[in-house]
Amino acid sequence: MTAHAVPERDPARTVSEREAREVAEAAREQRWHRPSFAKELFLGRFRLDLIHPHPAPDPEDVRRGEAFLARLRHFLTTEVDGARIEREARIPDETVRGLKELGALGMKIDTAYGGLGLSQVYYNKALALVGSVSPAVGALLSAHQSIGVPQPVERFGTQAQKDAFLPRCARTDISAFLLTEPDVGSDPARLATTARPEGDDYVLDGVKLWTTNGVVADLLVVMARVPAGEGHPGGITAFVVEADSEGITVENRNAFMGLRGIENGVTRFHRVRVPAANRIGDEGAGLRIALTTLNTGRLSLPAMCAGAGKWCLKIAREWSASREQWGRPIARHEAVGAKISFIAATTFALEAVLDLASQMADDKRTDIRIEAALAKLYGSEMSCRMADELVQIRGGRGYETAESLAARGERAVPAEQLLRDLRINRIFEGSTEIMHLLIAREAVDAHLAVAGDLVDPRTPLADKGRAAARAGGFYARWLPGLLAGPGQLPRSYREFAGPVDLSGHLRYVERSARRLARCTFYGMSRWQGRMETRQGFLGRIVDIGAELFAMSAACVRAEMMRAAGDHGTAAYRLADAFCHQARIRVAELFGRLWTNTDDLDRRVVSGVLSGACTWLEEGILDPGDDGPWIADATPGPSRKENVRRPFR
Questions:
Q1: Regarding beta strands 201-212 and 264-275, do their DSSP bridges make them parallel or antiparallel, or are they unpaired?
Q2: By the 8 A CB rule, do 323 and 401 touch?
Q3: What number of helices (H) and strands (E) belong to the chain?
Q4: What angle do CA 392, 395, 400 make, to 5 degrees?
Q5: In this predicted structure, which of 10-19, 289-298, 458-467, 515-524 has the lowest mean pLDDT?
Q6: How far is CA 129 from the centre of its chain?
Q7: Which residues are catalytic?
Q8: Is-contact 93 99, C-beta < 8 A?
Q9: DSSP output for 92-129
């Protein structure tokens, strides 16, 4: 390719389902070097010993973490105006400058590189605190540290890269992570951005969409496809790119229903030269690096979800105690009281899940890839439900903006804003639907390891015979263990018979885990290689596992608090309420595994897509325009103004 040639759009990015699956599978972390509570749970083995007694933080981590939280709380109280950020849809430069001076950009970066070196537990506490004042600021800090330059460089970078980039990220430079493209979401096999080797450089061409922090970033982590060639194995590869490099244009600052201060944009690369020294890891290792980074990076979202739950509880309590209808506070009416109970119990459980997963991440004794994914999935779903219930409790005032409430003399409670801000968490860093599939894949990993060849129609007959022998040995040992367990013994888990007896809930978790494993096995036996297409079934399997994990975490946290003399009685009661509520949801999910409308829904969808129901769309006007569903992302020079706006 000549120095001035413009690469054509790669038509090969229309990939088959098999290729897409193989790319995703190759990016997964294949081995389990440490035990996993959630993995064992999906296999029907309730390993309470992996989470109880609740892991304890290092006293020095606590000291440094609490000292930083005190400084951060003062800064947020005196210097950050969340209402202004919402009103102006921008984070002021002085706010970011203050965060830099506080060291908030380097919360997760090692002290050797100028960071604060906070534990995962205290990093998450800080994000929850920040997010309660401004979710947009929380998103800025989270995207910078959880998925931006610091994490992949610290874990996979060379020493030279760490020395060059980590001190900048700790104190001065904002970073962003660029993977998604206009026509590429959760299917990275179709990635179209290229990085072509030229001498000692790579030349980047392509367009990236939804680049959180991309409008203001100083450093970027960019995922691009390196073509295979002599001396280059190729594949999706990660690069650190200077955001002010020649050929980079931020073409648009995107606007959303919530997180109005977020700096999220569209970034075009046209013949951007990146030194080979800025490549993170080997060629082709980009997706593996991204997924490994997300194993703990995903915990930032449930941190802010747990913080949102705390705020929902505070507002629901204060408002429902003061607002009277029919002669008594609305909290005393059962219809409203049930919502408050749900918010309180679920907030306790979300914090229990978050702190348990975070402390396990700090201890590094267990593999938390499933636990972190479950925390993200569960936190994003349940926080949205809590915010919706808060809006309902507030009634018309819940639907009214904080600015409007203040204008007519009432307390400015941004309940509707919270609902809008939280909604993205069900899409960010893996949508709920994708998280279901990701977790389901990990949950059945042990089965595929021994029986994958048996259910794969492409496997030769001779290999199927060997797979059958291997699977027979595994299931001969595994299946009998699903028939009986401690959950059937009345005195099991009696150490949890505190102010309220929680031992029955743990026995329920143990029995349900075995039942869940039996259902998973039956599903595999029934559908075999077509199991992956049964996304409704897999989603319910994962949701049951999420509820059982949350119940376990809530009970363990309650016992930890009782033993420490820290609100033990109240914690036990909240855990008991949550577990009773969760058991109702679990029972419904188990029922829907086999009694559902999945097959009927597929037939309806076929009819809708074929045009058989267009008559149903008559009688309305479409307020949208006739533009393309997906913007053109053909590589080439930008025709738009560069709207990049680094913080001053």
A1: antiparallel
A2: no
A3: 23, 10
A4: 110
A5: 10-19
A6: 18
A7: 429
A8: no
A9: -HHHHHHHHHHTGGGTTS-GGGTS----HHHHHHHHHH
The Cα–Cα gap between 581 and 382 comes to 13
Q: What angle do CA 557, 560, 563 make, to 5 degrees?
A: 150
Task: Please give the C-alpha separations between residue 12 and each of 184, 539, 590, in angstroms, as whole numbers.
Answer: 13, 31, 42
524: confidence class by pLDDT, cuts 50, 70, 90: confident
Nearest to 306 by CA among 129, 558, 553, 514: 129
Distance CA 256, CA 28 (A): 31
Longest dimension (CA), the chain: 82
Would you give the end-to-end CA distance of the chain in angstroms?
39
Give residue 15's pLDDT.
72
Q: Tokens 């926080």 map to which residue? A: 383
Nearest to 132 by CA among 399, 334, 344, 422: 422
Q: Which of 522, 7, 444 lies closest to 225, judged by CA?
A: 7
Checking 445-452 for CB contacts under 8 A at 24+ apart, the result is 445/32, 445/39, 446/39, 446/43, 446/474, 447/520, 447/521, 447/524, 450/474, 450/475, 451/475, 451/524
Under the banding of pLDDT at 50, 70 and 90, the label for residue 448 is confident
**Angle of CA points 71, 75, 78, to nearest 5°:** 135
The mean pLDDT value of the chain amounts to: 93
Q: What is the pLDDT of residues 379-434, one digit of tens each?
A: 999 999 999 999 999 999 999 999 999 999 999 999 999 999 999 999 988 899 99
What is the tens place of the pLDDT at every residue in 85-118? 999 999 999 999 999 999 999 999 999 999 999 9
Cα-to-chain-centroid distance, residue 405: 33
